[in-house]
């Protein structure tokens, strides 16, 4: 029984922090939980009504498409740029330590501070982004980042890309350092080009490391509420919100806790299905 005694604290913490909230959320997703009956804690059982209302709402499907677009764009840029900078830093460069610190800074800065900084940079008159654009392309190049929902959504994507690249870069850099140098030397003797070495050696050996990193990055990006909520000042319109901000608004602005819980369960199922299929696809390729 000794191993079980050592595992007990961790298991108890997981049950309290993860299992109980998840089970409770699933239960209230089948009930009518609003601000009116929150104090009495008497929640009428309504079955699948919350799920039916969500799945019959056209706003859910347009937001789902936008969420998928948000996730795909962010993860693609995170992985591609992160891998590029990792390959760059894995070579001998002058001032490599300084460059590495600069590239890690977005990851080290708290998300709230980073989002507030980018929000100031998006100011239509005084923001540095528009100042740079107008200096290069003229006065007509100023973009209404914070007033037009579509541009606000683009601004959120740019901010989140900037924040997510360092994570993928550090993961890739750790994987690159574990690849034996002898493999590249053998490839050089065979006359392999740089692209061939990257395709035949680097990518296959990084795959076991990048697969869980991509899954984690997808889950985090799919559920990234901070950036959109802060840049839009908590009033994201339908054209600039994603599913997780819809959950937040229904819970803490409209006080429809049952519907919010049902939408959270749907998001959980979507991410669970994606993670399962992606990992199985990677294993089948292996």
Automatic annotation (TrEMBL):
Q: Which domain of life is it from?
A: Bacteria
Record-linked CDD domains: TM_PBP2 (cd06261)
UniProt keyword terms in alphabetical order:
Cell membrane, Membrane, Transmembrane, Transmembrane helix, Transport
Q: Where are the transmembrane segments?
A: 68-89, 101-122, 209-231, 257-279
Q: How does it sit in the membrane?
A: Multi-pass membrane protein
The record's listing under InterPro entries reads:
MetI-like, MetI-like_sf
Protein location: Cell membrane
Q: Which Gene3D superfamilies match?
A: MetI-like
Give the organism the record lists.
Clostridium estertheticum subsp. estertheticum
According to its UniProt entry, one GO biological process term is: transmembrane transport
One Gene Ontology CC term in the entry: plasma membrane
Q: What is this protein called?
A: ABC transmembrane type-1 domain-containing protein
Task: Indicate where this protein is primarily found.
Answer: membrane
Q: Which family does it belong to?
A: Belongs to the binding-protein-dependent transport system permease family.
Boundaries of every ABC transmembrane type-1 domain copy: 64-278
